[in-house]
Write a structure and sequence with these properties.
Layout lengths: L2 H13 L41 H22 L18 E4 L2 E3 L2 E3 L2 E4 L5 E3 L4 E7 L10 E8 L2 E8 L12 E2 L4 E4 L10 E8 L2 E3 L7
Antiparallel strand pairs: 1-4, 2-3, 4-11, 5-10, 6-7, 6-9, 7-8, 8-11, 11-12
Helix pairs in contact: 1-2
The protein binds zinc ion.
């Protein structure tokens, strides 16, 4: 499945949303990279179940984007036709320090685990699966984040976000990757607080704490 198809699907989902963006005037917003060719901000979306974010400014923007990434994983994995969910992940996506756990954060909700590591640290597939998203799926909405999503079954996916683009994502859409295979490199693209991988697992259409599946 190509990113363009999933983007169209997502765009139709966005069009149905009535949630407005709580966009404050936090000066950190000015540091967020935006492509010159795409002045349109990321449209607001209905948060995925369990991913509701509240607040304003940078924090709310970041939570909103992370909810959008998880929603993209939900839509792409549902059509993967890969069969049942695998029960365990083989390895962490990269060696590093957990800088932000899954759960409530800054008055909102952090729907993944942040693993901080030096720039360019290899990011590895956490289990065997099929790459369903690779690249910058929200660039048209002004979000420069590089993302990889791997489907491991019809109802289960891993998501790796804010990846490097100076040393770009190496995983290709449609490719079968093995556990431990390098798919990208650690970066800080999009709305990011520093070099880390935002890693999450999507199970049965919602983002869940990935640590329960990790060794
Ligand atoms: Zn994160």
């Amino acid at each position: 499945m190509s990113v363009s198809i999933t983007r169209r699907r997502f765009a139709s989902l966005l069009a149905t949303s009535a949630v407005s963006l709580a966009c404050g005037l936090d000066p950190r917003q000015a540091q967020a990279p935006k492509p010159a060719s795409s002045p349109t901000p990321l449209p607001s979306i209905e948060p995925a179940t369990g991913d509701a974010s509240v607040g304003s400014g940078f924090d709310a923007e970041l939570h909103q984007r992370e909810a959008a990434y998880a929603q993209l994983a939900v839509s792409t994995v549902a059509g993967s036709q890969l069969g049942p969910f695998i029960q365990k992940l083989a390895n962490w996506p990269l060696a590093g320090r957990v800088s932000s756990p899954f759960g409530p954060r800054w008055g909102g909700f952090h729907n993944g685990v942040d693993v901080a590591a030096p720039l360019y640290t290899p990011v590895r597939a956490a289990a065997r699966g099929q790459v369903v998203v690779a690249g910058k799926p929200f660039l048209a909405y002004g979000d420069t984040a590089s993302i990889v999503i791997i489907a491991h079954g019809n109802s289960f996916a891993t998501l790796y976000a804010l990846l490097n683009d100076e040393r770009p994502v190496v995983a290709k859409v449609g490719e079968i990757v093995e556990a431990g295979q390098v798919i990208a490199f650690n970066g800080s693209t999009g709305w990011s607080t520093g070099p880390h991988v935002h890693f999450t697992t999507v199970l049965n259409a919602r983002a869940v704490d990935p640590t329960q599946f990790l060794p």
